[in-house]
Amino acid sequence: MLSRRGCHSGTSVWSSHAGGRGAGGRTGGERRGAEAGRCGRHAGDGSDRRPTGAEWPGPGRARTLSSARGRDRAVARVALEPDRAGSYAGPFVEGADMAVEIPPLIKPSRLRRRGGLWGECLAEFLGTFVLIAFGAGVVAMAVAALPGSGRTEGPTTFFLGAGDWLLVCWGWAFAVTFGVYVAGGVSGAHLNPAVTLAFAARRGFPWAKVVPYWASQVVGAFAGAALVYAVYHDAINTFDQAMKGPKTNGHTVASFSIFATFPAPYFHGGVWGPLIDQIVGTALLVMLIVAIVDLRNTAVKANLGPVVIGFAVAAIGMSYGANAGYAINPARDFGPRLFTYVAGWGKLALPGSAAGSFSDYWWIPIVGPLVGGLIGVLVYDLFIGDVLHLRAQRKELPEVGRARPVDED
């Protein structure tokens, strides 16, 4: 299990810049003295050394190092990066031993370029693919597969009660959790253009990587939607045939909801209601993410950050999901929307119009989350982050009655 204590990052949804004092209450200099004896040991030879600059992974990511000494080559360690001043800010994390060293699938000469941005984009692609595969998959189950397989009252019957919505909320929570676990060690697992933009604005994520991350996330979402359709197309087609009411190329708004979002009828086709909903939902999401990973605050430990972020997504779905499907992620909506346009949903997907219900909706789940993500990180930094930064500079003790972890010497 990877320890996050002392980890510096401005770019990951599962680790964050500790800023001054870490979760253990000591500064980086104090931790260095206490941990130097075990942090720099090379796997297998017991010698002490500090990792060289070439060995450090990118911001917010872990990297596996192997010993080159004989049989000890099978033992791996994970290193954390130094802080921005160049000092040693985190330990080698033990417990990554493997019975057999895992060889790369691709020859090392061809693998090198994947160690940088290309590898991070591949991780964002796969993480977002997993996100949509489980997220859109659970909606396909609820809307088409369960009714079509005789597990509900009728072939088009779903969501009989308000509690049935929990199936979708928890499904998306698991989808986010697993997507972050898949990609977190390589790219930081943003999986969401709103998160990437917020981290670039306030967490030091390089602006040059923003567009490549966005593209990878959208393509991953498109591929995830294609997988769900490949698995459930028979159930979806059967559902659409049984449904009565307006159809576009034989498809219904209900089957479209498996892949992308649209506003509730009570907005009467208006723009501001759904747009505000997306801004608020994504602001809450990003605010919770930066709080969960902030080691200066009561950050989640024991590598459970992705799980708690999944809880945050479930909470937003339960509290705000009915308004507009809680996209709160431009890639999560636009990638599957592109796929459904290609697969035959036509104007339901792009420009996102249904006669008498909504029109030209496609841009709202893009603009709303991008604006909301910026608001979320700014609100957190204004009300919480700045206070934590000031206290770290003053080296203030926590208030009376507040517990603080104490490191064992």
TrEMBL record:
Location(s) in or outside the cell: Membrane
Keywords noted in UniProt: Membrane, Transmembrane, Transmembrane helix, Transport
The UniProt record lists the keyword Membrane: yes
Bilayer topology term: Multi-pass membrane protein
TM regions (residue ranges): 117-145, 165-189, 210-232, 275-295, 307-328, 361-384
Region (Disordered): 1-69
Main location: membrane
PROSITE patterns: MIP (PS00221)
Pfam families: MIP
Keyword Amino-acid biosynthesis on entry: no
UniProt family annotation: Belongs to the MIP/aquaporin (TC 1.A.8) family.
Name of the protein in its database record: MIP family channel protein
Lineage, uppermost ranks: Bacteria, Bacillati, Actinomycetota, Actinomycetes, Kitasatosporales
